[in-house]
Amino acid sequence: MIIDAWMQHPNAEWIGDPMFDSLRRWKPGKWSETSQPLEGTLAEMDRAGVSLGLLCAWHGPDGPMISNDEVAHHCRAHPDRFVGIASVDLHRPMDAVRELRRRVRQDGFKGLRVLPWLWGLPPDDRRYYPLFAECCDLDIPFCTQVGHAGPLRESEPGRPIPYLDRVAIDFPDLRIVGGHIGMPWLGEMLSLLMKYPNVFIDTSAYKVGRYPLELVDYMRNNPKHRILFGSNHPFWPAGECIAGLDALGLPDFARSAFLADNARRVFRLT
After folding, report:
1. What is the pLDDT of residues 254-266, one digit of tens each?
2. Which SS3 state, helix, strand or coil, does residue 56 take?
3. Strand order in 227-228's β-sheet?
4. Whose CB has fewer CB within 10 Å in the chain, the N or C terminal residue?
5. Cβ of 226: how many Cβ atoms within 10 Å?
């Protein structure tokens, strides 16, 4: 079984946003500027052998980009293939707490994702803290992006130390998933994994062939490693991301943990 820890089903406004122009330069000729049928996302999952996708909403300072309603609709249509990850308005923390609570209790969402580069606010900002407390009460993880920002925004809010370090100290019960590996600060991100038992990394936005050796060594040699597979569909479809996995030579325990077991544990999936 393969669980994809970070994916989106795009709508036309989101996929066509100018802030993604830098990503289009990385992958010329492979973009669609229009919304695609959900069957296209399911077909890509099937090609890659992905059984379940953690499908995330996007909310930015100007409002919803992929709404929680859209994600909930997709999850209701295919409950065996998708689980929702909420996104909320960081500038209205109490409304955000209520929205997160509603999505988890009403729609079965399994996590919260906030992108620091999108808001220009690192995760130790005071506006996140009511949401962290609610994540602990709801027993769901906080998912975020670590490392440089691919879109045309500043990268500094995604630096693991000191920002996530402070969060992990203040909220020892909070499960934290840092997506996009953490380059160029992978050493900082791995040090947080060693320091805190509730910190994880997902590999979204990276193909297997681009995994840093330091990350691969950690997975090979640590029986209880905390790395999750993620694609970042549709920017990087799962099939492209997972191709060549056998070449890493991961032991069976490490491969199983990477592809599914860690995601089950983090997101409390049955």
Report:
1. 999 999 999 999 9
2. strand
3. 112-113, 142-145, 176-179, 199-202, 227-228
4. C
5. 24
